[in-house]
C-alpha cells in the first residue's frame, strides 16, 4: 500500500503546495481523498491519471477540498475513462454533484457532440453519501470512514486504509478528537493536518484576531498534533494541509518532535510513502522508513 501527498496546501494560494488531495494505491486499486486545486496535474505527475481511479473520497464539503472535481471528471474522460467516477462523501455530496453537473451541462453537451469520443460513460458520476462507520472493500483495500470534529462544518470525515497487514489513517480537517485518536491507534502511518498559530499573525485587511482564533479552533494545532500521535501510538506521523503553506518546516519539525517519539515527516507535494516496502520517495530521493 502506497500513499502519495498530491496537495499539501490549504485555501491560501501557493506555488509549492497545491490544494488538499491524497492518493492511496495498491496493485489493484487507486483511491483519491479530496479534490483540491491542481489535483489533475498532480495525479498525472504521480503516475495515476484520473482515468484510473476506483473511488474519490471527500472528507467534507469545503471548497478547497473539492474545487477541482469537475476538472477531474472532464480530464479523466479526455484520458479515455470508460466508466463512471465513483464519489463517496458526506451528506450534501449528491446535491453538490448534481448542481455541479447541471452548471456545466451545456458545455458538456457541446463537447460530447463535437469531440465524438468513443464513450460518454466517463462523464457520469455515481454518488454515495456516507456516515460514521462506513466501509468499502476495493479488491482487498479495506477503507473505513469515521466522523471527525470540524465544527461548525456539520459532516466531516477521516479515513483509514488497511492492506497487506499495514494500516494508514488520513485525518481530514479536524480539531483533535477522540474519534481520530481511536482510529489512529497503532497505525503504521498517520497523515494529519496542521495549523501553525505562530505563523498566522493578525494582518489588517486580511485577517483579524477573531479570524485566527476561529480558523485555528477547528484545525489541529502544531502544539497538539504530536501529542495526538503519541497518544495513538502511531509508528510514523506525516504532516499535511499546512496553514499557512509557507511555514518554517524546521521549526515545525522541532515543535512536533518534542511531543512525538516516532519519526515525523513535514510533507511535500508528490511525496510517496510505501508501507509495504518501508520507503519514502520524493523526487529522486528514496529513504528507508524506520518503524514501518
UniProtKB/TrEMBL annotation:
Record Gene3D superfamilies: Ribonuclease Z/Hydroxyacylglutathione hydrolase-like
Pfam families membership: Lactamase_B_2 (PF12706)
Domain of life: Bacteria
Key word Hydrolase present: yes
SUPFAM superfamilies, per the entry: Metallo-hydrolase/oxidoreductase (SSF56281)
MF-aspect GO terms: 3'-tRNA processing endoribonuclease activity
Keywords in alphabetical order: Hydrolase
InterPro entries, alphabetized: AtsA-like_MBL-fold, Metallo-B-lactamas, RibonucZ/Hydroxyglut_hydro
Stretches assigned to the Metallo-beta-lactamase domain: 18-206
Keyword Hydrolase: yes
UniProt xrefs under PANTHER family: ZINC PHOSPHODIESTERASE ELAC PROTEIN 1
Name recorded for this polypeptide: MBL fold metallo-hydrolase
Organism name: Futiania mangrovi
